[in-house]
Amino acid sequence: MKHKLVPVAAALLTALTSYNVAAESATDILTDGWEIHGYGSMNYRMNDGQSFDTEFGKPDYKTAGTYGKSSAQVEFVLKKHTEFANGVYSDFIVRAEYGNGDSYYYSSPGSQKWNNSAQFEIKEAYVALGNLPYLPADTEIWSGRRFLNRNASGMSGEFWKQSSGTGLGFETKFNDGQRGGIAIVSADPEAGSLDGVPPAQGGIADGDRTTLSSLDFYYYGVKGLGGSLDFDLKVMHQANKDGDAADSGVGVGVTYNTSYYGFDGWSQTGLTYGKGLASNRGLNFGSWNSAPDSDESVFFTTYGVANLGTNWQMGSEITWFQALDTLFGAEDLQRGLIAVRPTYKVNDNFRWEFTASYGYENGKEGYWGRTGDAVESQILNGEVAAVFTVNADYFGRPQIKPYVSHIKADDAASAGHLGIKDGDNETIFGVHAEIWF
Questions:
Q1: Element (H, E) at 263
Q2: Following DSSP, what letter does each residue of 148-215 receive, concatenated?
Q3: Mind listing the pLDDT tens digit for each residue in 318-347?
């Protein structure tokens, strides 16, 4: 009897050993490594012999020149990607940034910052897991701090769609290239403040928090109209709000991706609606979303780049932002921008760049205390730049771009809203260096 049990025990041992080998091999690492990407924007501008802080209304769709005020903005994105034998993968993404929005020119005295504005910051830090065997195929889950589904207009450079904060999400892909997902992202407006002291003055969080949250539903890549359509729905909530402040909001939008309106190139068109907390372009969520309950808006933007021939390319943008009641607390606020940027390639390493834009802003008499000439603003902007680059394509980078830009407002009151101190016009000289990698 004893001898008969030996083969049985051996068989059991073999089976257990084989199972362990299979289980271990499923989690064997096939590929593992780091990727590094980033961005740099360095803008040297002088006016009356001094550096200056204004962007001449560019964030408000009034101009489209080379006005980014960051004197030295640096961004690094680190990605740790690992793939396993059973098809599962993991990503760890960290985005670090320094100097965004800081217009001062620094020397080298040692510690150059005395407050906490625009220091070295971690903007994203999250983990994503994909192809887990107990979830549908081509599915990814993530958790952490991130920018989710960002889109920026072409020449104003403003992010009109994003969810920026900390949260978690689920996304799956389909055979025809479509993808859909659900996410919740939260952000604290008080982050970095104390007793009403703004973060820029060294405050830290205190008291009840008015945490903002956005529940995102999205479905992207639907084929149609000669391109593809992306659909977004965001339902927002804010804690501990009372009075006239909105504690909820809803934003919906559709994005259309296609050629350059039937010509060679590409374009992207967005149409959104937002109410309450979502009134800031409908799909633009972050710690900035506090709003009066009466805020309601529609937003339209279309932009892209056309290939006009061997040497000519052109970027363009048309944007309209309209209050349906109030917007940013201003009754009947309207903002619009029309901008074009043709470029001419002289050779592989040099191109000329020309920019022209028309910006418009208006509202009901008395909005933000404005009366008379200050109520309506019409802004013209023209710019010429010589671009020294390693690749003279429209998006060729790195590059060094000396430029001269002239801004003309319809009156001195309108010019004053742009940061122009004297008269109704201003000429700016600068050199912008930029790299993407």
A1: strand 263-276
A2: EEEEE-TTT--EEEEEEEEEEEEEEE-TTS-EEEEEEEEE-TTTT-BTTB-GGGT----SS---EEEE
A3: 999 999 999 999 999 999 999 999 999 999
Residue pair 65/56 in contact by the 8 Å Cβ criterion: yes
Whole-angstrom distance, CA of residue 377 vs CA of residue 419: 13
What domains, with CATH codes, occur in the chain?
A: 6-18+30-104+120-190+210-436 (2.40.170.10)
Expressed in angstroms, the distance from the first to the final Cα of the chain is: 72
3-state secondary structure of 415: helix
In angstroms, the CA 360 to CA 369 distance is 18
Question: pLDDT tens, 269-325?
Answer: 999 999 999 999 999 999 999 899 999 999 999 999 999 999 999 999 999 999 999
* Cα distance between residue 268 and residue 255, in whole Å: 7
Pairing of strands 296-307, 312-323: antiparallel
φ/ψ bin of 318: left (φ > 0), alpha (ψ from -120 to 50), beta (otherwise): beta
Output the pTM of the full model: 0.90
For residue 66, CA distances in Å to 44, 411, 433 come to 11, 22, 11
DSSP per-residue codes, 203-256: ----SS---EEEEEEEEEEEEETTEEEEEEEEEEEESS--TTB-SEEEEEEEEE
Tokens of 298: 């529609």
Taking CA atoms, 251 is separated from 2, 215, 248, 282, in Å, by: 75, 10, 10, 4
Distance CA 7, CA 287 (A): 68
Rounded CA-CA distance 266/197 in Å is: 45
